[in-house]
Amino acid sequence: MYKSAFIEEEKCNGCRICVQFCPEPNVIVYLKDNKKCKVICEKCKGCEVCVLKCPKKAISLKMVK
Q1: pLDDT confidence bin for 65, thresholds 50/70/90
Q2: Domain 2-60 - what CATH class?
Q3: Does pTM surpass 0.90?
């Protein structure tokens, strides 16, 4: 088990600050169809930078199996 970031879609405003601050490439992606961000859990290292930077508090860390 490991920690991964998770974005609550209803809180995300698509500002992409999380994408800019994530230290790993292509972990957080912007989805043009719904104008929201999404975390690719398999790539996330759980560093928590996006959680701290999100102005809408839409991101949290969760345990993943």
Answers
A1: confident
A2: alpha beta
A3: yes
For 37, the enclosing helix (H) or strand (E) is strand 36-39
Calculate the alpha carbon distances from 24 to 13, 58, 63 in Å. Answer: 21, 19, 19
Determine the Cα–Cα distance for residues 25 and 62; give it in Å rounded to an integer.
20
Q: Which amino acid is at 1?
A: M
Structure tokens at 33: 């169809």
Residue 11 contacts residue 58 (beta carbons within 8 Å): yes
Domain assignments of the chain as residue spans, ordered by start: 2-60
